[in-house]
């Protein structure tokens, strides 16, 4: 069967864009991706988005975004998997291309959170959790993750400071990323002085609220990909070598183990199996660090680190420049930002640019194989992709 | 490439189920489909839903429904395309199976509208229209369709009564359908005496608000399909011979022509092309008649009738028992009901049963080829499938 390649990527800066609508942001990202693909127009659109229904009062989102971008008529639909919507859109878009249902597909992601004030956004984000068995009782999404962070710290003996090396480093990376929402360095003092949102999670341990849109263009078959790469002036191809998705219970009370993200492990195994490689073959990764503990757990459950050891290894310098894998040079959700349903697409776009060598921020050491890890809910819906550079 | 078959279907009765949650309804439909498929369990779930975010306060819907049904862990995500969400889920699910990303996929649909009172449902339904350029000005979804109905009546010279033969017949069909929300006959007097919702659309010209869930099981390859059919005691196979999706502008003011549903025409052409047949080869169809005018326009724009003539032909007895195609023996959205994001999956399940000869309501004349037509918005997102019976 024909292979699937990513021939173009585009994204907006992440921020609080009160003066721009969701459709405007998305159109900018999509057209950057089309231009990056030498002008090839997608014949279908799959868009990852969580909160257009609750914050933008807008359904029919796929058609709306296709039309506004000047692509009226093409097949277009929205995929929702909470914060993993972008990854899920990639999963669906990959299948559309691989199956031949469409030969050129745009996979996009959009979130426009500044349509509402923070209390409404907090309520909308909580819809990633179980409405009847969790949110009904008043817990927020940060509250759920805080319980897991506390347990993780107790089980593995980490302090507030121990876990704070993650955001410290993410802010440093983001300071080089022109698309980042928080492109500035921070200090351990600033992190530890920042207010507690939900104990033990502080403001600087959590991803910010922001708007953003990203898109990647998928095509079917090496011949088509080479033709487009040539037109775009590139001599490398980026293959989507594997995609894996797995889920878990939405309510965390019925999990087997609160500090092991089973869906992450399953999705990673599936994507690596499809790509025919092992976890040790991954050169570069973008992982879903909505909170500091999530970033560490991702490293562990993907298989990059033994359980409970990621914070120690990270503090020692692992997963940083020159290591294998290098991780989150975008700045991660923490500092690049987390435009919810778009995040999974940002990660893929960033990984593609790192593989091509043209990421305009902190550069990886010429990786050949990259992995992206995107989650919805508290590791409820996870999508992992494996991308591979061809000569 | 391997073909895709539907090996099991299941649905709940449509109604106002205040005492049941969405996850309960969906689980019932999914397990009926699994049992109908001889017990084969899906390895992925794609669920069509429009309003879980607005009416159930629930995102992460795919994972939630998979877990509640006892299938924790499988890839699962929601597809949103307004009232066309069920059709869009079929489109995505077809690609997952066809590509081999998953070999057994459940495509489901769910809507739980009785979570809220009618004004809230009306507002949520309006999110199918353009939030910024239509709904902001106060129009409802029925209001938009009413403008089109009025124009259609003026252009083609039809009266209130002329268009009312559609609901008259739909109620008759629904009276035989054990799953229908309104399983009772009506009269021309009752229709014409019913209150106007948005002039010229009366209560009996519109689909009711209701809850419901449906699911179909897709598998990859004839061998697997034959094995399952045998285990389920059937000697026929149902192939998904074609799927087509197309979109239009969300706001109707920027359409080329208000009485021609261009997305319907495009999606139908694509599905028929993929199936290698013409519109004249279709024996049976389920079309999306959210309003009487929508049903007629669907017949015209799919290509079953010349533009403007469907009401006249229907009144004369065309598209009814013994004709080619026979249409909407379920009772249609009008009387079977319209559990929004599930409707497209109901249509597919009904068409499969008509092809197999085991639909428990008004029976078609042994069709070999069936077509389903599902729309989101005012013909904004349309999905057409072509199903074919194999011996």
Automatic annotation (TrEMBL), chains A, B:
Record's keyword annotation contains Acyltransferase: yes
One BP term from GO: isoprenoid biosynthetic process
Gene Ontology MF: a single term: acyltransferase activity, transferring groups other than amino-acyl groups
SUPFAM superfamilies the record matches: Thiolase-like
Domain Thiolase N-terminal: 4-220
Domain Thiolase C-terminal: 244-388
EC number: 2.3.1.176
Enzyme's top EC category: transferase
Pfam families: Thiolase_C_1, Thiolase_N
Keywords recorded for this protein, A-Z: Acyltransferase, Isoprene biosynthesis, Transferase
Chaperone keyword on record: no
Protein name: Propanoyl-CoA C-acyltransferase
Species of provenance: Desulfurococcus mucosus (strain ATCC 35584 / DSM 2162 / JCM 9187 / O7/1)
């Amino acid at each position: 069967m024909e292979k699937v390649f990513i021939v173009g990527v585009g994204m907006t800066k992440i921020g609080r864009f009160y003066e721009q609508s969701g459709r405007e942001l998305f159109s900018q990202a999509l057209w950057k991706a089309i231009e990056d693909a030498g002008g090839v127009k997608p014949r279908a659109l799959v868009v990852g988005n969580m909160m257009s229904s609750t914050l933008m009062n807008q359904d029919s989102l796929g058609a709306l975004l296709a039309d506004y971008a000047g692509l009226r008529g093409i097949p277009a639909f929205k995929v929702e998997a909470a914060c993993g919507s972008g990854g899920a859109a990639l999963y669906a878009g990959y299948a559309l291309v691989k199956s031949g249902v469409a030969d050129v597909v745009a996979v996009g992601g959009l979130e426009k959170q500044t349509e509402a004030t923070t209390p409404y956004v907090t309520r909308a984000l909580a819809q990633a959790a179980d409405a009847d068995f969790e949110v009904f009782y008043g817990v927020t999404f940060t509250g759920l993750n805080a319980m897991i962070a506390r347990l993780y710290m107790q089980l593995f003996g980490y302090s507030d400071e121990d876990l704070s090396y993650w955001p410290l480093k993410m802010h440093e990376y983001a300071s080089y990323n022109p698309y980042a929402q928080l492109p500035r360095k921070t200090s351990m003092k600033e992190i530890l002085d920042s207010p507690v949102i939900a104990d033990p999670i502080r403001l600087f341990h959590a991803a910010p609220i922001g708007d953003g849109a990203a898109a990647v263009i998928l095509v079917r078959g090496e011949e088509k990909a080479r033709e487009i790469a040539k037109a775009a002036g590139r001599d490398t191809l980026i293959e989507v070598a594997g995609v894996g998705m797995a889920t878990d219970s939405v309510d965390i009370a019925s999990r087997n183990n609160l500090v092991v993200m089973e869906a992450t492990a399953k999705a990673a195994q599936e994507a690596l199996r499809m790509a025919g490689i092992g976890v040790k073959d991954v050169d570069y990764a973008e992982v879903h660090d909505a909170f500091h503990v999530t970033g560490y757990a991702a490293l562990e459950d993907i298989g990059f680190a033994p359980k409970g050891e990621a914070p120690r290894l990270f503090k020692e310098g692992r997963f940083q420049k020159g290591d294998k894998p290098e991780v989150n040079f975008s700045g991660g959700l923490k500092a690049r930002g987390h435009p919810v349903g778009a995040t999974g697409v940002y990660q893929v776009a960033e990984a593609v640019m790192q593989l091509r060598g043209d990421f305009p921020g902190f550069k990886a050491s010429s990786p050949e194989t990259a992995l992206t890890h995107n989650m919805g809910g508290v590791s409820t819906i996870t999508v992992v992709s494996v991308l591979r550079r061809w000569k």
